[in-house]
């Protein structure tokens, strides 16, 4: 049972080169490693203007979501800061899994709050530098957990969307002036985005399966080769061993007779 309600994982990363900056995964969730792998896969496969190599024309923010087995993944990209945030929700722990709009609001509230807290804590120049290492900001996972707790508390109290402090809210609106419109648009395109990303995930899983089969085939081929070499040696010993032994005995007898 996850200890942070329905939220079981959050990943914060740079968009253009997919470098993970920090992450949080609920270790009490049985498939924590799967959540990490799927979040990274979403980051690598998302296709929006913010993820293109040439980001000079990219602007605004983008939300996407999709189902994967017992989880729903929500992703947020912001072109101005080159950030991507992925949040994973356990469908079994949602208070009302049939309320799509409510689930969207809950997930977007967390994405927006994590974005606001992260950009308040670190500047674009800091996490956008070339020398930044993967998970260099891993200490931010404590702030992610506090964001999760705050969003869940707001959801239980029935309050509106959660946004960062006064400074964070103002900065957020400058990055995305159509904040509410984008959030509402997420509901309209929810199923289309979900299907597209599900197809991407399925293709990725199929490729991993093929690679696994290929590795197994290489291992088995090496074993069969070694076994074949041993069998050929035994066959040569059985074929030429007795005549060779007889020849050696005959040679010994001749040596004893004449020498």
TrEMBL record:
Subcellular location as annotated: Endomembrane system
Entry keyword Lyase: no
GO cellular component, one term: endomembrane system
PROSITE patterns: V_SNARE
Membrane topology note: Single-pass type IV membrane protein
Annotated TM spans: 240-258
Gene3D superfamilies reported in the protein's UniProt record: 1.20.5.110, Longin domain
Xref: Pfam families: Synaptobrevin
Keywords (A to Z) from UniProt: Coiled coil, Membrane, Protein transport, Transmembrane, Transmembrane helix, Transport
InterPro entries to which the protein is assigned, alphabetical: Longin-like_dom_sf (IPR011012), Sec22 (IPR044565), V_SNARE_CC (IPR042855)
Gene Ontology molecular function terms on file: SNAP receptor activity
SUPFAM superfamilies assigned to the protein according to its UniProt record, in alphabetical order: SNARE fusion complex, SNARE-like
Main location: membrane
Stretches assigned to the V-SNARE coiled-coil homology domain: 178-238
One of the GO biological process terms: endoplasmic reticulum to Golgi vesicle-mediated transport
Protein name as it appears in the record: Vesicle transport protein SEC22
Source organism: Strigomonas culicis
